Amino acid sequence: MIVGMDSVSGDDELYENFVDDVSAEMDSADETNSESSRDVVVSDNDMDEHRVSEDDENEPNFPVFNPVEMYNPSLELGMIFCSKKEFKKAVQSYAIKQKRSVKFTKNDSFRVYAVCSGDGCKWKIHANKLKNEETFQINLYQDEHTCPQVFNVRNVKTSWLSERYLQDFKSDPKRDVKGWRVDIMNQLRCHISRDQAYRAKRQALKKLEGSPEQQFTKLWDYAEELRRTNPGSTIILGVNDVKGPHKGILLTAVGVDPNNNLYPIAYSVVQKESRDTWEWFLTVLKQDLCIQRDNEYTFMSDKQKGLIQAFQSVFPNSTHRFCVRHLHNNFKNAGYRGLAYKNALWKAARASTVGEFKLRMEEMKQLNQDAFDWFNDKPPTEWSKSHFNEFPKCDILLNNCCESFNGNIMDARDKPILTMLEWIREYLMRRLQENREKASKKWKDTLCPKIKKLLQKNVDKIGDCIPIKANDRHYQISCYDGNQYSVDLEMRTCTCRIWQLSGIPCKHACSAIFNQNLQPEDMVHPYYNVDTYKQVYEHAILPISGQTLWNETGLVPPLPPNFDPSSHITSFQFPTAIFFLLETHPILIQMHIRHTTKRKSITFHTSSYCISASLSQPPFHSSFAITLG
């Protein structure tokens, strides 16, 4: 019994000792965990980095190819690639780097073998697909070449060039291919053919901008994104079945702001120029600008196909002006060339009174009766200041704002349709902000800078004028050239009509204003004030998200007009017109249209600024329309 008790007592001691040891170990573990609590894994990435399985511990540590080094690769035995494509591209880049041609002797789903094309060269490389993985591993590599370097490396392909130098064309899409080809040949020390260089640029731009077909499928989604981000915008995407290719035409409505700079109002892409497209464009513009009485509007344009008929249909009570530069070109083409004819025409165009106009036309008649008769079917109301309406406060004879805008968007017109439209939208967004910031931070005077310079030119000429005061309102101005004018300071008129036409005091008015101890700046029409300029630019075009974030409309995607419906699904639709109108302008009071020479255009001039609708021809086949708010 005593022995048994002793045995039990001994077991209890052993158990108690075991429990004490376990408790001590647990306490030690708790202390360890407490001390290491600072190193707790806080992210999935950290957990992945610290997780090591028994299989991983047993696997050898092979080098892994870094895609960052794709165009300057270093290959070695055992290196792992994430895919066959990555391995082949790395071998291609290696061949170009070494200036030796390499050919692939085996290329299937499980093996890729390559050897050097040099005579008798021992260089070769093998890569096999790892079991149950998509990765490839180099399992044979003879890295020494026994052949000389070559200048014509067969591995220099168009696709490789377009990917390698993608950023070059992204930063400068207009980069000259000839110069770029020379630079790359000097860099690689390899031959690149002229055709390769041009194809590489085309492929690079296609990767950056997408194909025209892909971009047309996004037009509905793009329009919806504009509506979402810029409330108040008018988006019109007209579609119709079309057969055969049609060149796209870009139409823009461009205005002149209070500083005599261009102010884009609307832009549109249509299939072709015709009376129908012009009527559609002018109708949408008229509706969005809420033009009620078209008899208050004067349009300036050329006699392009269908344009005059469109004006007569949409604005039947309006008057027209024509760009004098375009008129002079037609005058020259009729056989009346030379400085004498040019000066005679421009003197008649710049004449501000009917009497002066008759005098200038008589001079042309003395110069050449046939030249004088050439103007018989061209009413002076269309091209001479002497017959212009005084209400618009705009005496412009040229359409420079349209030419300027077309020049600014030149880089956009050869791009696919979505890229082109986004290029124009971003350009307008930046321009509005830059002008808004410039006016608020830099302009401290009452008048806009360019208007102030025009006024100063008239002030500098008051030495030619002798003012005779009739009362506090009326002055008689005698000039050294023998002419005499009457100025009414209260009505802000001069019988030379320049003040009424432009809204800026002429030299005769400035002479009377100074004699009355007034300031000419206070007599300029308020349309040209800095405050008016700020009102014009107070609205902004808001940014939009990238294509991956656009809401899908689910509508039938349109296709380019040169798409052949006979060989494809006929349920697709073709866009015929797209119209954009910016809701960033003040209420219009009056409008004039003018035209540019090399590009067909129209210009509307308002009391506060001018709107010009110009037409240019981008080298793509498209047709689309929208309006920004």
TrEMBL record:
Domain SWIM-type intervals: 485-517
PANTHER family: MUTATOR TRANSPOSASE MUDRA PROTEIN (PTHR31973:SF187), POLYPROTEIN, PUTATIVE-RELATED (PTHR31973)
BP GO terms, sorted: DNA transposition
Lineage of source species: Eukaryota, Viridiplantae, Streptophyta, Embryophyta, Tracheophyta
Protein's organism: Sesamum calycinum
Keywords per UniProt: DNA recombination, DNA-binding, Metal-binding, Transposition, Zinc, Zinc-finger
Record flagged with keyword Transferase: no
Protein name as it appears in the record: SWIM-type domain-containing protein
Entries under PROSITE patterns matching the protein: TRANSPOSASE_MUTATOR (PS01007), ZF_SWIM (PS50966)
Any one GO MF annotation of this record: zinc ion binding
InterPro entries the record matches: MULE_transposase_dom, Transposase_MuDR, Transposase_mutator, Znf_PMZ, Znf_SWIM
Region: Disordered, residue numbers: 25-64
